[in-house]
Write a structure and sequence with these properties.
Order of helices and strands: HH
Helix content: 40-55%
Number of helices: 2
């Protein structure tokens, strides 16, 4: 038999495998980083660092005439209510200065012998008996 030289297979280029491995590895790395950011980092940052509240709209350049009129009306009403209260306080102070311990007209008769209701007075009911305080030996 004849010795045949070993059969040589055509060499396959290896660069597509290397390139595919690198591209696949980078894609897997990118997907992992993206999921990690989306699931873990984003919620933490959103809670920890919040944007300040939006500024309120600027105020109008001058006072509103309707609001000024409403405030003036409200002030006038309050002054009237205060005046009524001051008058009531003055009346009550005058009553306190008077003799509050005695009744000026205990029978209720007017100077013409008439009662304020226009009827003649009837006999007064008998006075009630005074109640006695319990002695120290009695139970309540």
């Amino acid at each position: 038999m004849t010795d045949l030289p070993p059969r040589q297979e055509p060499l396959k280029p290896r660069w597509p495998l290397i390139l595919g491995g690198l591209v696949g590895g980078f894609l897997l790395l990118a997907v992992g980083l993206g999921l990690g950011w989306y699931l873990f980092y984003r919620p933490i940052v959103n809670v920890a660092v919040q944007l300040p509240a939006a500024l309120p709209p600027p105020a109008p350049p001058g006072p509103d005439a309707a609001q000024v009129k409403a405030l003036e009306d409200q002030i006038d009403k309050q002054k009237a209510a205060n005046k009524q209260i001051e008058d009531q306080i003055a009346v009550l102070r005058e009553r306190l200065r008077a003799d509050v311990c005695t009744i000026p007209n205990p029978t209720g008769q007017t100077p013409g012998g008439q009662t304020p209701g226009g009827q003649k007075p009837t006999a007064a009911p008998p006075p009630a008996a005074p109640q006695q305080a319990p002695s120290s030996g009695q139970k309540i």
